[in-house]
Amino acid sequence: MRKNLVIGGLLAFMIAGSLPAVPAGAATASLIHWGPVQSRSGHHGYAKADVWITRFTAETFVVSGALYDRDTHSGHCAYVRARFHYAGGGTGWALPKTTCASKKPIRLSSDGRITRVDVKVCVYDRPRRTTLNCYADAITPAIIANWPQ
User: Fold this and answer.
1) What percent of the chain has pLDDT over 90?
2) Residue 3 has pLDDT above 80, yes or no
3) Among candidates 48, 45, 99, which has minimal Cα distance to 72?
4) How far apart are the first and last CA of the chain?
5) Among residues 56, 108, 100, which one has the least CA distance to residue 78?
């Protein structure tokens, strides 16, 4: 029994040692930094999202980053939502993310391959449950292809 455990342990060690090491930055290498998307300014401030996206070739497209509430009014918060334009036709909205804190991580994902994403950032009025001062950035593969490498 002991011999089997030793052989099994050595085999597992050799298999683990033969696998290629993954660099720490490999997981983030496929992300593209789109930059800030900011709502229009109101009389008390604005909302902002620092947006990172996956490549458009990904099966599930992800918009991630951080959402910032830059509105001094206590009832106003930051709001972000993504609209995905699917390769097979049609569109779909990701569930919105909101925060009244100064910063919150976000992750919005599609249900398949897409051709375009609209990232919408607004100031959210909590008492009225409405969005204000919205701004949307349309992100397409053609825009990213023209970026300097």
Assistant:
1) 70
2) no
3) 45
4) 57
5) 100
CATH topology of domain 31-145: Immunoglobulin-like (2.60.40)
Q: Given this model, what pLDDT does residue 30 score?
A: 83
Please list, residue by residue across 88-98, b when 16 or more beta carbons sit within 10 angstroms of its beta carbon and e when fewer do: eeeeeebeebb
User: What torsion do the CA atoms of 110, 126, 137, 95 make, to the nearest 10 degrees?
Assistant: 0
Type and span of the H or E element at 16? helix 2-18
Residue matched to tokens 């910032």: 68
Cα gap 96→128, rounded to integer Å:
16
- The encoded tokens of residue 66 equal 């951080």
pLDDT tens digits along 9-25: 444 444 444 434 433 44
